[in-house]
Each structure stands twice: as structure tokens, then as C-alpha cells.
Design a protein that fits this description.
The complex is a heterodimer of chains A (263) and B (156). Chain A is of the alpha/beta class and 263 residues long. Chain A is built from five helices and nine strands. The chains are: A alpha/beta (263), B alpha+beta (156). Chain B: Residues 82-92 have a biased composition (Polar residues).
């Protein structure tokens, strides 16, 4: 197990982290709109709530609600992007912060947060054990409920890419291999006219393949584990959580979970 | 990095977390910067009050050479200006470019205590420096206001 764990980490280093690091400089700031479910989750939190955005990327969710405090973290040392965005956010009086951290070794005291979000992160872990561990790392941030069966504890929202997305241009569906390498095309800088091609920096997005190719375009492959129906809920249960709400939105499975009280 | 963040940070090493000495992290060789934001968010401050580890924050303020925090944390009432009046027309917050919000909050005005708390927790930031674990001594670097908690392989 320890050995396969190291292999998992090495594999991710090669097929996830190094790719993000190469594309990091091309991250756009706040071009992409937040997912509606994530936005609503954050907006419905009571004023003064404190929580974590594990895998915050460029920090786009940090600005959704100015009455809560979010500590965003990401594995990628996106200092420039994070600090630039944080300065922007600070100017809008947003009380947030961002740090660089690994989603499996988060520097937060256990059970201290009212909420946590993990958006498009867990599907990058390459073994079942590491995915459950990553879910557990998120759940362990939450305040436990006050009594058994009570749901007044902290809440986590977890979002992963779905296997079932036959209407997407990738066309994956039930029965397809779940562990896939997804091409990510970084456009070569050129021609100001084709603005549309820029900004595919967004981690949840894959640039249209076959879109006007330019000489300097570079293709990177990133590892994803595509979740099938019910799998996220099972990972959450196995990690000691209780699913309170779950669903499917635009090629992704999502679930809201609380920590199960075990006594 | 806003000082409030330190209220929610500890050592990233799993075996350290359970030790009380790992919280709070201790700032060392830090360059501070005040990032002014004109409006004090009173509902936010009130609600975050019970979450503050006051004694630990006092230690941090002291280690950073900031003016000493009071020995006991303020209460919610301490944060509101007693003579708050809704007739004040030129509110400070309105200069911030979100006049509508400024007006909404005009009924309860932040007290000096609230402004002081806002200044220390949300406007005072660590720009460069280190955060040190009191248990294992590991140093985490802060660069451009972002602290780095990635661990070398042998510590994961
Ligand atoms: Zn430590």
C-alpha cells in the first residue's frame, strides 16, 4: 500500500502537477464564471462562516461572497496569479487568503471549518485509496455535528468530472475506461483577432481540438479519473462522511457531505 | 497574507497537528504590509469573533512587533459604536465606491475597537517571511503574500 501510494504520487507528479506548472503562466484571472451550484453553496452560507477552497486554482471562488472567510489552497505555486488576484479581491474588500499546499497535507487544524469546497480536484488522484484519502482530508476540516444524526456540522461540497457525459464533445459514457489522459491544448500566442482561443487556462476546460491550429500550439496530457454514478457517494462514505445532497451538473457529479459522528 | 489566516493555519505535517505546540505558527523575519480597505464589515467581524483564538493572536501580534492586543477579546457589543445613528449622511464607507452597501450598514457603525480589529486581522498582511512550527521547527516560506506549505517528500 505504501509502495502503491508512492507510485500514485509519482504518477500524479508527472501527469498532473508538471502539466499544471507548465500551463500556469497562461492561467487567466477571472474569465470563467463559477459553477452555479458552487456559487449558490457559497452564497447561502451564514455571514462570518469560515472555510477552505481546496484546489482553488486561480481563486475564482474566493470572490463569490464577501461575508465569509475562505482560505484557498492549491498545489501549484501560482504566486503571481494568486497574489495578483488576491490584491484585486482585497481591493473589493473581500476577506480571503490563499496558500500553496497539497490537498493530502493541508495545514489547517482538524475540525475547524464551517465549510469546505473541493472543485475539480479529486479526479486527479490516480488510485482509489488516494481519492478516498483526499475526500477524507476535506471532511476532516469540518466541524463535526453536535450529536449523532444531527446535521449541524460543517458542510463540504465536492465536485468531480463524470464518466457519463455522452452529450459533451468528448463523448465518454457508461462503460468507457474511467482512467483517461485528456489533451489540453495551449494556444501559441498569435493573431489578436482570434481572442476566443485565449484563456483556456481554466482547469475544467479543454480547448476544442481541431480548432485553428497554429505552429506554436502545444498539447499536454493530463490524468483524470472519471467518476461514474454513485462512486463519489461511495468514496465519501468510505472516508467517514455522510452525503446530504448529491447530483449531476454539466458533465460533473457533485455531493454535499457532512462528517459522520461516530460515537 | 492577512493575519486572520494564521488563526486557521497549523503545521502541514500530520504527526505535528495533534501537538498543541504546532498552533499557532510563529512568524519569523516577516515583512508586513498594510493593505487598506475602507469599509469595515461589521456583520463579518461580529460572526468571526467566537472563532478567534485570542491568546494565540496576541502572541502573534507580539512576535510581529505590533501594538499589544487587549488581554481579553472584545465582545460583539464592543464592536458597535454606541452613538450609531442612521442620520449620518457622509459615511466613510461611501468613499469606497459601493455607496449602496455603505448606506445599508449606516445604522450600526463600527466602533474604534472594530476598526482596530479590522486593521490588525484583515488589513495587516505578511508580505514576505517565514512561518515556523513550534513543535517540529519546520519553516514555511511566505512569498508575495502567499505561504507555501508543500513538504519535501520525506516529510509527507
Ligand atoms: Zn510541525
Amino acid at each position: 500500500m505504501a509502495e502503491s501510494d508512492t507510485q500514485g504520487a509519482d504518477y500524479e507528479e508527472q501527469h498532473v502537477h508538471s502539466v499544471y506548472e507548465q500551463i500556469a503562466s497562461h492561467f487567466s484571472s477571472t474569465r470563467y464564471k463559477p459553477w452555479p451550484i458552487v456559487e449558490r453553496f457559497l452564497q447561502e452560507l451564514p455571514d462570518g462562516s469560515v472555510g477552505a477552497d481546496v484546489g482553488c486554482g486561480n481563486g475564482k471562488y474566493l470572490a463569490v461572497n464577501r461575508n465569509i472567510f475562505i482560505v484557498g489552497s492549491d498545489r501549484y505555486a501560482l504566486y503571481q496569479i494568486l497574489s495578483t488576484n488576491l490584491i484585486k479581491i482585497a481591493k473589493q474588500h473581500q476577506p480571503h487568503a490563499a496558500i500553496v499546499a497539497d490537498s493530502l497535507s493541508l495545514p489547517h487544524p482538524a475540525h475547524s471549518f464551517d465549510f469546505a469546497i473541493s472543485i475539480a480536484v479529486i479526479h486527479h488522484l490516480s488510485t482509489p485509496a488516494r481519492r478516498v484519502e483526499a475526500v477524507k482530508a476535506v471532511l476532516d476540516l469540518l466541524r463535526p455535528p453536535s450529536a449523532e444524526g444531527s446535521r449541524d456540522g460543517g458542510k463540504a461540497l465536492i465536485y468531480v468530472w463524470a464518466l457519463e457525459q455522452k452529450d459533451s464533445r468528448r463523448g465518454w459514457d457508461e462503460g468507457h475506461e474511467q482512467d483517461v489522459m485528456v489533451p489540453w491544448v495551449m494556444k501559441g500566442k498569435k493573431e489578436k483577432g482570434s481572442k476566443k482561443g485565449k484563456g483556456q487556462e481554466e482547469r475544467d476546460q479543454v480547448v476544442e481540438e481541431g480548432a485553428v491550429k497554429q505552429a506554436e500550439d502545444k498539447t499536454f496530457l493530463r490524468y483524470y479519473h472519471l467518476y461514474k454514478k454513485g462512486e463519489l457517494e461511495r468514496d465519501i462514505e468510505e472516508a467517514g462522511g455522510e452525503v446530504v445532497q448529491a447530483g449531476y451538473e454539466k458533465d460533473n457529479w457533485w455531493a454535499v457531505a457532512v462528517l459522520k459522528r461516530t460515537n | 497574507m492577512k493575519l486572520l489566516t494564521l488563526n486557521f493555519l497549523t503545521c502541514a505535517i500530520k504527526t505535528c497537528k495533534t501537538s498543541p505546540a504546532s498552533f499557532p505558527l510563529h512568524p519569523r523575519d516577516c515583512e508586513l504590509e498594510v493593505v487598506e480597505s475602507e469599509s469595515v464589515n461589521l456583520p463579518f467581524l461580529k460572526n468571526i469573533l467566537p472563532r478567534l483564538m485570542w491568546d494565540e493572536l496576541r502572541v502573534i501580534a507580539d512576535e510581529l512587533g505590533l501594538p499589544a492586543l487587549p488581554s481579553t477579546p472584545p465582545t460583539r457589543d464592543d464592536l458597535v459604536e454606541p452613538s450609531s445613528s442612521s442620520t449620518t449622511t457622509i459615511s466613510h464607507a461611501q468613499n469606497a465606491g459601493n455607496a449602496a452597501e455603505g448606506q445599508q450598514q449606516a445604522e450600526e457603525k463600527p466602533s474604534q475597537t472594530a476598526r482596530d480589529l479590522h486593521r490588525v486581522l484583515l488589513e495587516t498582511c505578511i508580505k514576505e517571511g517565514k512561518l515556523v512550527c513550534g513543535n517540529c521547527g519546520h519553516e514555511y516560506k511566505v512569498m508575495e503574500g502567499v505561504a507555501n506549505f508543500l513538504l519535501p517528500g520525506h516529510l509527507v
